[in-house]
Design a protein that fits this description.
Layout: E1 3-8, H1 11-25, E2 37-42, E3 48-50, E4 53-55, H2 57-66, H3 84-91, H4 103-117, H5 122-133, H6 135-138, E5 142-146, E6 153-159, E7 167-171, H7 172-178, E8 185-191, H8 202-207, E9 211-214, H9 223-228, H10 232-238, E10 243-246, E11 249-250, E12 253-254, H11 259-265, H12 272-279, E13 290-294, H13 301-306, E14 310-314, H14 321-336
Parallel strand pairs: 1-2, 1-9, 2-5, 9-10, 10-13, 13-14
Antiparallel strand pairs: 3-4, 6-7, 6-8, 11-12
Helix pairs in contact: 1-2, 1-14, 2-5, 4-5
Bound molecules: guanosine-5'-diphosphate (GDP) and calcium ion (CA).
Length: about 325
């Protein structure tokens, strides 16, 4: 197995990728060649413009995590960050104050924005940024593709008694960062998704893969948006490669993040089985061949196998790269072993 394609969000996807690459590098993944290539198709529907800069949270989380530049405690942004730009902007009273850009991080957004202004598509900008972060660390073993070069934005409708309609629509980042996902999400609308086109290489990466992985990323606003790019879901359903996923819900709750709120907003049961059945078996019109759930959700395995999925219960907490590499090994084994 030489070509592995992963559909990734930010933190959950990045941690999984770290373990996957660790497993490939240490030769612990059954049947996976040590010089295997990992192609990451990353969600871009969280992207936003802030202070005139284009910020791509999920692309950057993957890039910084795999390039060892991430802040390990926060799980996003740069290690050893300082916040002078944020403080100075606040002194000017410039909004938004809730989205803080770190000083080191700002350099990434400046380079990205300048290249976009010069006419480069996001995919080429991402490739240029990754030359710094991915080449020295992983050699040629990993590449990062935005799901689309088009502008796609997740918006969340929340209740607002002060508005005449009784509701208000906010950008996903405002829901997550400013409101901390503390108010119920009524609906999720992904603006521009239906009109978007897959980024260069995205469909081929799925079609030509030896294995496609849905990591424990948010099933609605990360993997859901990637699958929503026209032709992507069809490519996953049709690829010759086995498709395996890992549950982002453990013991009935997301470990970190806001998958619970997002699943609730689209009416999906917040459980490992709920998410597995939401993706569905390829034999039944869905996108998965196999689904890993955590050990504490072992009682849900029969429901999933009954729906046509290969399923196993294994530890799914990404506590360190070794534990995560073991998850990746179990995923490979489930569908290819
Ligand atoms: P985001 O874009 O930063 O929100 O990151 P992702 O969409 O890639 O992943 C977020 C999801 O990862 C969360 O909603 C959690 O459900 C899941 N997650 C985080 N840590 C773990 C873990 O250790 N194990 C599992 N199984 N899921 C996790
Ligand atoms: Ca995200």
């Amino acid at each position: 197995m030489r070509n592995i394609t992963v559909l990734s969000g930010g933190m959950g996807g990045a941690r999984f990728l770290q373990g996957l690459l660790h497993g490939i590098g240490s030769g612990t993944l059954p049947g996976v060649s040590p010089d295997a290539w990992v192609t990451v198709v990353a969600n871009t529907a969280d992207d936003l413009w802030v202070h005139g800069l284009k910020v791509c949270p999920d692309l950057d989380t993957v890039m910084y995590t795999l390039g060892d530049g991430i802040d390990p405690e926060r799980g996003w942004g740069r290690r050893d960050e300082t916040w002078s730009v944020r403080t100075e902007l606040a002194e000017y009273g410039v909004e938004p104050t809730w989205f803080g850009l770190g000083d080191r991080d700002v350099a990434t957004h400046l380079v990205r924005t300048q290249m976009l202004d010069a006419g480069y598509p996001l995919s080429q900008v991402t490739e240029a940024l990754c030359r710094r972060w991915l080449d020295p660390v992983w050699g040629a073993g990993v590449r990062l593709l935005p799901m689309t070069d088009d502008r796609v934005e997740t918006h969340v409708a929340i209740a607002d008694p002060d508005s005449p309609s009784g509701r208000r629509v906010v950008h996903f980042q405002e829901y997550w960062v400013r409101l901390r996902a503390q108010v119920p999400a009524e609906t999720v609308v992904v603006v521009g998704l239906e009109e978007s086109t897959p980024g260069p290489g995205v469909i081929d990466a799925i079609t030509d893969a030896d294995l496609v992985v849905l990591p424990p990323s948010n099933p609605v606003v990360s993997v859901g948006t990637i699958l929503g790019v026209p032709r992507v879901r069809e490519a996953v359903a049709a690829t010759r490669a086995p498709v395996v996923g890992l549950s982002p819900i453990v013991g009935g709750t997301h470990v970190r993040g806001m998958a619970e709120q997002m699943l609730t907003s689209i009416g999906v049961e917040v459980s490992a089985a709920g998410v597995g059945l939401h993706y569905g078996a390829r034999s039944d019109g869905g996108v998965l061949d196999g689904w890993l759930v955590d050990e504490r959700d072992a009682d849900q395995v029969p429901r999933l196998t009954g729906a046509g999925l290969a399923c196993r219960a294994v530890p799914l907490m990404m506590t360190d790269p070794d534990a995560t590499a073991a998850m990746a090994a179990a995923a490979v084994q489930l569908v290819a072993g």
